[in-house]
């Protein structure tokens, strides 16, 4: 699958315990539940999360992929076959060399290793297929689990963005993390299509 091919159709990525695929309208109920969790990443959605807002998010994700601006994956747990999370990578420059990624995981899937397995696939796809050089993440300072996972992934904390995000009328600090392609060596996984 070539660099431009992901724009026509996002490949399914698989690992031992997860499958990643593009969100579809059949995921609506599960994604409304997931994105309604209090500490879920926002993916540009305002609260409260509604069926209409998530349906529009799914459509926007598909349009952004076709335009080469972003790609979005539903994280499907191998054991339940149900959506367990969501991850999105958005370009920060026209060449998609710098990108921002955002992810959220259902509480029932946290601590299972699914997150690291999924983001290793997504990072390998972004660096290897899409051609990104830098991935950035912004995480709430209070989110110890997410900050710890990024540290485990080898991300570098570049700073704290003071009062950078507003939720429910209150401002919160975010930690800015980055991962560079040359730092990804221990995390590469194959994202090539598998022949059965």
How would you explain this protein's 3D organization?
With 196 residues, this protein is an alpha+beta fold. The protein has a domain at 5-133: Gcn5-related N-acetyltransferase (GNAT) (Aminopeptidase). It has helices spanning 5-8, 28-35, 51-66, 114-130, 144-152; strands spanning 13-14, 18-21, 70-77, 83-91, 98-105, 134-140, 156-167, 170-180. An eight-stranded mixed sheet has the order 1-2-3-4-5-6-8-7, with helices on both faces. The protein is globular, with a radius of gyration of 16 Å.
Topology:
Layout: H1 5-8, E1 13-14, E2 18-21, H2 28-35, H3 51-66, E3 70-77, E4 83-91, E5 98-105, H4 114-130, E6 134-140, H5 144-152, E7 156-167, E8 170-180
Parallel strand pairs: 5-6
Antiparallel strand pairs: 1-2, 2-3, 3-4, 4-5, 6-8, 7-8
- What is the 3D form? globular
The count of helical stretches stands at 5
The counted number of beta strands is 8
CATH topology of the domain at 5-133: Aminopeptidase
Overall average pLDDT: 89
The topology string of helices and strands comes to: HEEHHEEEHEHEE
Provide the spatial order of strands within the biggest beta sheet.
1-2-3-4-5-6-8-7
What amount of the residues lies in strands? Answer: 25-35%
Alpha carbon gap, first and last residue: 17 Å
Approximately how much helix is present in the residues? 25-40%
Structural class determined from secondary elements: alpha+beta
* Low-pLDDT sequence parts: none
The CATH first-level class of the domain at 5-133 comes to Alpha Beta
Going by CATH, the architecture of the domain at 5-133 would be: 3-Layer(aba) Sandwich
Radius of gyration over C-alpha positions, nearest whole angstrom: 16 Å
- CATH superfamily descriptor of the domain at 5-133: Gcn5-related N-acetyltransferase (GNAT)
What summary fits the major beta sheet?
8 strands, mixed
Quaternary structure state of the chains depicted = single chain
């Amino acid at each position: 699958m070539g660099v431009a091919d992901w724009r026509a159709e996002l490949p399914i990525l698989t690992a031992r315990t997860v499958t990643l695929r593009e969100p579809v309208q059949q995921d609506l109920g599960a994604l409304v539940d997931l994105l309604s969790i209090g500490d879920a990443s926002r993916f540009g959605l305002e609260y409260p999360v509604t069926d209409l807002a998530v349906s529009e998010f799914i459509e926007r994700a598909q349009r952004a992929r076709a335009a080469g601006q972003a790609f979005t994956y539903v994280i499907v747990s191998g054991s339940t076959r149900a959506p367990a999370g969501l991850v999105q990578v958005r370009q920060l420059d026209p060449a998609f060399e710098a990108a921002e990624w955002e992810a959220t995981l259902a509480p029932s899937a946290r601590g299972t290793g699914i997150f690291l397995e999924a983001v290793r696939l997504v990072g390998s796809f972004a660096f290897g297929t899409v051609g990104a050089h830098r991935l950035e993440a912004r995480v709430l300072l209070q989110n110890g689990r997410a900050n710890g996972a990024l540290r485990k992934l080898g991300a570098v904390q570049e700073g704290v963005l003071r009062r950078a995000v507003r939720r429910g009328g209150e401002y919160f600090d975010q930690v800015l993390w980055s991962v560079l392609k040359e730092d990804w060596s221990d995390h590469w996984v194959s994202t090539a299509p598998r022949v059965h």
